[in-house]
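User: Hi! Is it possible to get a structure for several chains at once, not just one? Here's what I have:
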Amino acid sequence: MSPTPRPRIPVGVLGATGTVGQRFLSLLADHPWFRVVAVTGSDRTVGKRYGEAVQWILPGDVPAEAAALTVLPTAPDLAGADGKEIPLLFSALGSDVAGPAEAELRDAGYFVVSNAGSHRMDHDVPLVVPEVNGDHLEILRGRKGRGAIATNPNCSTIGLVLALRPLHDRFGIEAVNVVTLQAVSGAGLPGVASLQILDNVIPYIPSEEEKIESETCRILGRLGGAGGGPGIEPAPIAISAQCNRVPVLDGHTECVSVRLRDSAAPAQAAAALRELDPPGTRDLPSAPRPPIVVVEAADRPQPRLDRGRGRGMAVTVGRIRPCPVLDLRFVLLSHNTLRGAAGGALLVAEQAVAAGLVEGVVSPVGQAVGGQLLQARGLKPRKSS
Amino acid sequence: MSPTPRPRIPVGVLGATGTVGQRFLSLLADHPWFRVVAVTGSDRTVGKRYGEAVQWILPGDVPAEAAALTVLPTAPDLAGADGKEIPLLFSALGSDVAGPAEAELRDAGYFVVSNAGSHRMDHDVPLVVPEVNGDHLEILRGRKGRGAIATNPNCSTIGLVLALRPLHDRFGIEAVNVVTLQAVSGAGLPGVASLQILDNVIPYIPSEEEKIESETCRILGRLGGAGGGPGIEPAPIAISAQCNRVPVLDGHTECVSVRLRDSAAPAQAAAALRELDPPGTRDLPSAPRPPIVVVEAADRPQPRLDRGRGRGMAVTVGRIRPCPVLDLRFVLLSHNTLRGAAGGALLVAEQAVAAGLVEGVVSPVGQAVGGQLLQARGLKPRKSS
Amino acid sequence: MSPTPRPRIPVGVLGATGTVGQRFLSLLADHPWFRVVAVTGSDRTVGKRYGEAVQWILPGDVPAEAAALTVLPTAPDLAGADGKEIPLLFSALGSDVAGPAEAELRDAGYFVVSNAGSHRMDHDVPLVVPEVNGDHLEILRGRKGRGAIATNPNCSTIGLVLALRPLHDRFGIEAVNVVTLQAVSGAGLPGVASLQILDNVIPYIPSEEEKIESETCRILGRLGGAGGGPGIEPAPIAISAQCNRVPVLDGHTECVSVRLRDSAAPAQAAAALRELDPPGTRDLPSAPRPPIVVVEAADRPQPRLDRGRGRGMAVTVGRIRPCPVLDLRFVLLSHNTLRGAAGGALLVAEQAVAAGLVEGVVSPVGQAVGGQLLQARGLKPRKSS
Amino acid sequence: MSPTPRPRIPVGVLGATGTVGQRFLSLLADHPWFRVVAVTGSDRTVGKRYGEAVQWILPGDVPAEAAALTVLPTAPDLAGADGKEIPLLFSALGSDVAGPAEAELRDAGYFVVSNAGSHRMDHDVPLVVPEVNGDHLEILRGRKGRGAIATNPNCSTIGLVLALRPLHDRFGIEAVNVVTLQAVSGAGLPGVASLQILDNVIPYIPSEEEKIESETCRILGRLGGAGGGPGIEPAPIAISAQCNRVPVLDGHTECVSVRLRDSAAPAQAAAALRELDPPGTRDLPSAPRPPIVVVEAADRPQPRLDRGRGRGMAVTVGRIRPCPVLDLRFVLLSHNTLRGAAGGALLVAEQAVAAGLVEGVVSPVGQAVGGQLLQARGLKPRKSS
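Assistant: Yes, the chains can be modeled jointly so their relative placement is included. Here is the combined structure:
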C-alpha cells in the first residue's frame, strides 16, 4: 500500500466539478498510483481554473494540485495529447451526457472507469465490484482496440452485493427484499432541496429500484454468457427494492431479507460475511481490509457512526437474525459517495490496472493479479490476444 | 360531529405531562363529547398547576382549561370522588408504570382507554383500531364489574392494520414484510437525543418489531376464541417487521410487501383501500372520512405533506405496485402521535361510548352503534349480561 | 372578518407555481374578499392546468379551484380581458423577472401587490407593513393612471419593523444590531440544497443584509419627502444586519439589540410591544390580533412552536432584557412565508382595497379605513384626485 | 510533534463515559506524551469495563486500550496509588459534581485540567486558552502543595477569545456583541432532545451568555491582580452575548461585532488574525498551526466544512467587514467538542507540562517553554518557589 517509486499514472476526471467529481479529486490527491493531470467540466466552467470553477462542498479546501488545473471540455483530445499520455479516465459525468461522451472516449482509445449508469448493462462493459465479481473485468481482455469502459454499480447496489456475495456462495440466494434509506449526497447538487427533505422522507428515487433489481443479478451472475460467449449470465434471483430518501448526508442504510436455498443460522451468516477476503483485491491501495465489518450492537450500523469504516470503503452489517417471512434478515450500511461512487470506481480502476487490462500501463503489482481475478472466482483464465 | 347539547362526559388523563398526554389534552380541548376534569402526573409534578408542571412541546399554548387543573397522583380516588364522577380515563402512562396502575384503576371501576403496551395482549382486553376490528370491543360487554381496559395498538401497527384490513378481507393476506421509518416523537421526551439522530438513522427500536408482529395478528384476528369463548383468535399471517428511527418529527412511513391468497392488481388493491368505510365509526367525532387516502403521485406519501390528512387520523397509501418477491407492495404513512397514539385512543373511547360499553354513560349516538360493531364485521351480536 | 355578501374581487397571481405563489393560492382559497381567476407561470408551465404544472410543496392537496385554472403567460392581457375584470394582481415573481414585468402590468392599469424586491425602493412605490406604516400607501392616492405597485418588504425585515415600530414611537431607536437565523423556505425551490444545510449553518444570504438595513429605514421613515413632496423620508437609524441560513423549514429568528434615545426597562418595552394595535388594520381579514405576542418563557420564541401564532401573521417576541453594549435586546420570530411573504402582501392588498386605493373596487369596509391610514400615524389626509 | 522516546505520562480521565469524556479518550488514544491509565464514572458504571459501560457516540469503535480499563469511582485514591503515579487528571465531570470532586483531587495532590465550569472564576485557578493567555498559568507556579486546577473556558468563549486576542492587542477592543449558533453536542447526552431541535432553533442556553460575558474579560485580562498580587485583572470590555441552539452536530458559529479604540480596516484585522502564532504553544502536540484560519469566500465559515480545520483545533474566521453600528464585524467558527472542550483542555495540559508546572513531570520540550509563557505576553518571569 506504500507509494511505488515508479512515476504515477496520469489520469483525467470527467465531470470534475460535481459532487462525485469532487470525491474523485479528493481521493486521488494523494494516491500512490495515480496523478490527476486533466479535469473536464460543463461549458460554464471550461477555461476556468478548477479551484475557481468548483463549488467545493467537501470539508477543507480544494486539493492544491487540482485547484490549479484548467477545466477542459469533455472531448477526446484531452490535454491536447493523443490519448497515450492519459491512458485512464474517471467519469463522474451525469447520466444525461455520459452515454455518448464515454463511448466516444472509449473509441478514441481511453480506458474509462465510469460511475454513470449509461453503459452498465452493455454486454461488453463489465459492471464490477472488485471483491464481488472482479473476474467480470476479464471480458475486456483481448478486446479489439485499446479503449474500454468499465463501470461501477449504482450506490445502493454496491453495498448490497458485497453482503450478498458470501451468502450466495455459501447458502444460495433465491430471493431478496431490500428497503433502502438513502442519503441526500447520492443525488448530487442541487439534488434534493432542503425544503423537500427536512423533517421528511421521500419514498421514491427515480430509476433506483430498477437499477438495484437488474444490476444485482448481473453482478452476481456468471462470467461466460449463454452461448459460451464472453458475456455475463445474470444470477436467477428475485429481487424487490423499495427506495427512500432520508435526511442523512452520507451513508445508505439497507434493510435486507433473503430467501436461501440452504438454511443458515445468523452466526453462520455472520461468519461467511466476515470471511470475505478475495485475493484479487488484497493489494489494491483503496481496498478495505476486511471489506465487510459485522457489528454486534443491537442498534448498529448507523450512517454517522459506521460510514467511515475502512476509510468509507467497508460495508457494515448488523442485526443478522431469522426472518419470519423469508429466511434471514439484516441491516447493512455503506458510504454512498466513497464506496458507492468515487471510491468504488477507483477500486475498479486499481484492479484493472493491476490485472494488466489498461493498455500501455504496467501493473504496479505484477502480472499475478490478472490471474487472480479468475482464480478468485474459481474460473480458468482465457487467453489474452 | 357537532357538539351535542347534553353535558359533556367528564374524563381524566393519566400521565398528562408527557408528549402523548399533551396530545390528549390538545385533542380533548374542544371535544364535543368529553371534558377533561382531572390530570395525573409523576411525583415531581403532583400538586402543581398543569400549566406550570408541563414542558409544553406542541405549537401554541397549553389549552386554558387544562392549564388550570391541579396535577393529581395516578391513583383510584381521582378528584377525591368515588369514580362515578369520572367514568372514563385516558392513559398516556409510560410502559414502566402503566401495567399495575391501569389494572388498579380498572378494578376500581374506571373504564380506561390506554395507549400503553402493558395490557394489549391480555385476553380480556380488546386491542382495537375502530375501523379495523371495532367488534373486538364486544369482549367487554357483559363483563363482571364496571371497570375495563381497552387499548390502542403500537403507533406503527395502527397504520399497518388499517391498510391490511381491506386487503385481507378481499384477497387474503398470507405474509407481510414491513420496514418502518419512524418519527422521533414516538419516543417521547427526552426520547431520542439530537446527538443520536441528526444526520443519522437508528436501525433499531426496542420491542417495536415484536409488537408489530404480534399485535397485527391479534387485531386482524377473529372474535371468538379457540374454544368458542370470548377471546380473539389471531390471524395466521407471517409477519416480518424491521424498524428504523429517522430524523422526522411526526409521521411513520412504512414500506410494505404482502403475499396474497388471491391475486390482486394494484388498481384492485387501491379500490379496496379506498372503499374502507365501516359503518361502526362513521358518526364518531374523531373518525376521518375516508380512513385511507390513496395517492397517485410517484413520490408520495411523505411525512410532512401527508401526515395531517383527516386531521392526522387518516392513513395515506401510495406506490401500490407488484412485488417481484411477494405479490404486492406499497408505502403507507400515518401520524404517529395523532392516529398512532392519542387520536387513536380517543377514537377507541368514542366507539366504546357510542356502543354503550362505558357503564353509566349514555351513548351520544344511540344504541344502534353497538350492534354495528358486529354487523360491520359480519358477526352476530352476543347477548349482553 | 366574516365573508361579505357582495361578490368577491377577482384577482390574479403572478408566478403562481413557485413556493410563494403556492402560499398565495393557499391563503386565497377561502378568502372573504378575493377570488383567484388567473395564474401565470414560466414558459414551461404556460397552457397546462395549474394542478398539473405545479410541484405542490405545502401539506395537503392543491386548492381545487386553483388546480383547474390554466397557467397564463405573465403579460398585460390577463384572461384576455381589458384589465378591468382583474383589478388586482399578486406578484410572486422572482427578482430576475419582476422588475420589468410588474412595471408593464402597472402601466397597463393593474394594481400590483408585489412580494419581489425589484421596486421596493422606488420613490413612487410604497413599501408597506400595514400595522407599521400603512399610511405610506397614501403616496398612491391621486396618482396619474389607474395602475400601481405596492410592495411587501423582505421576509426578515417584516418581523423586525413590527417589533421596532412601537419601540421607536415610544423610546426613539438610534441603532439596531440584528443577527438572523433564517429558514430555508425563504430561498424557495430548489433554493438551498439539502447537501448544503443538513448539519450546517450558512452565514451568508446574498443581498439580505443590505435589504434589511435599507428597507427598515424606509419603512420606519416619515411620509412626506425632503422637499415636502409625496415621498418617504427614511428614519435616521444605524442598522447592522448579519444573516444566517439554518436548517429550519419556516420561521425566521432574529436576535436584536437596540440603542434608544430614551431609556426603557424591559417591562416598559414589553408593554409597548403588546399595545401595538393600529386602527387601520383592525378589520382586515388577514390581520392578526394582536400583531405582536410577547412571551415570558426563557427559551421562547422558537420557530416550530411559535411560527403559527395568529395563523402565521403575528410576530412573537421574547427574552426582552438589558443589553450591556447597546440598551435593550430581545429575540423575535416571524413566519417567513406567511407574514414574511404571501400573507404580508395579502394584508397590504386588503389595506389598499379597504382604503379605496384600488380603482374600480369598492372598499368592503367603507371609506372610513382610508382616513384611518393617516390618522393611525398622526397625519392629515391628502385629497384624492 | 513527533512522539518522544521517553515513557508517556500516565493520566486519568474523570467522567469518562460522557460525551466530553469520550472525546478525551479519543484524543488521548495516540497521544505522544500522555497515556490513559484510569477512567472514572458514575455509580452506575463503576466496576464495569469501560468498553461495556460507555454508550460510544463517536465514529468507529472505542479505543482498544481504554475499552479494557475498569471504571473507577471519582475519588482521590485513583488506581489505588498515592497520586504520584497519576500526576495529571482530565476532568470531563458535569457541573453538578465537578466543584467539590475536583477540589478534593487537587487537595490530594493531583494536577487537574478541567473542562467543567465550577472553578473557572476562582482566583487561584487559571482559565486558559494557551494561544491567548497561556501566561495566566503562571499563577500556579510556586503554589503551596503539589495539587492544582487549571481550566478550559466555556466552548463558546474559546473561539471568541482566540479571535479577539490579536484584535485587542492591535486595535484595542472596547465592546463586543456576539450572537452564537451553537451545536447540540455542546449539551452532551441526553442533552437536547431531537423533538426539541429538529426544524427548530432554541434561543436560550442556560448560563451560557453569562459565561461568555465574564470569562472573556478574565481571559483577556492582565496577569497581576489589582493589588499587585498574583491574580488576574479582567479586561474592561463591555460584552453582550446572545446564545442559540441550532440543529448542528458539531461546531459553534458566532456572529461578532466589535467596537475598537483604534480604527481597523477589514484587511488589517484579517492580517492581525492571520499573524497570531504565540511562541509558547508552537511545539505542543495538539496546537494547530496556524490557530486562526481566515477565509475569503463570502459564505464561510460553515460548521460542516470548516470545523475540522487544524484537526478541530483551529478557529476559522470569515466575512470580516465594517459594522454600521459598532466598528467591525465578522463570523467565526470553532469545533465545540474538540477545541471547545476536550482538545482545548488537552492543549492546556500540554502547555502546563511543557512549562514545568506539573510536579513530578519533566517537560518533554525543555524548560524553555516556561519562560515563553510570559515572554509571549510581554511579561517577566516570576521566581518559582
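Confidence is low (pLDDT under 50) at residues 378-385 of chain A. Chain A is about 30% helix and 20% strand.

User: Great, thank you!
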